[in-house]
Amino acid sequence: MGVIETVLGPVGLDLRGQGGTPLLFLHGVGSDRSAWLPQLERFGAERLTLAIDYPGYGESALRHGATRSDFASTALAVLDALGIEQVHVCGLSLGGVVALCMHAAAPHRIASLVLADTFAVHPEGRAIRDRSLAAAEELGMRGLAEARAEALLAAPADPHVRHKVIETMSRIDPAAYALAAEAVWLADLREEAAAVRCPTLVLCGSEDRITPPDLSLALKTLIPDAGLIEVAGAGHLPNVEQPAIFNRVLALFLAQVEGQG
After folding, report:
1. CA dist list (Å): 159 to 29, 101, 155, 162, 165
2. 228-251 pLDDT, tens digit each
3. In whole angstroms, what is the distance from residue 189 CA to residue 95 CA?
4. Which one, of 211, 179, 219, lies nearest residue 68 by Cα?
């Protein structure tokens, strides 16, 4: 765990392993890089694996007015600082939006995309943004986290996972959360998704109520030759709800992309 200095300022970074084509994880709007610990431990045993915090999250410096494109630029700046030319990118929810923006900005640097519980455009995005920001202002981040946890997780939620989700969301700077909510819920990346030509896997928890499976199907349909897998028994956060299944699916996809499967 630590911080890396980039041309865009300090960025919170968790870096594991070495060798191979690196694997970058991008978190959701209500999380930070710590959400990827089960994946960092698994994939860091076989390749260079990293997870970052968005501007204002975790140990990253807040950038007032930052947009989803700025979040993507931050991720690319981390790759530059580490001397990484090409990377597999796995993003969840907002992370999937940022991953698509990274591809739009620098497609030659993306070896593959894994887009988990995300979308190109959300039909209820503006309403979700408005409700989220109103609740954050009225209840505070902890109150929002406690109110939001049940919707994020498949029932019955593991108490340990629920506790971790609440604690992580409670730590988020409200100003950073507002920027990220704008970045994800108002996104319309249908053109960017249709332009993707790298190997792509769309993942979704079968019980996701935030970005339902229909939105993953719509995203998969936009991207030429993309695959689609539902993670049974998971809600909006399959990487922490069903980490063994999530890791197995991701490992198989990477092996196929790299010609090992």
Report:
1. 21, 34, 11, 5, 10
2. 999 999 999 999 999 999 999 999
3. 13
4. 179
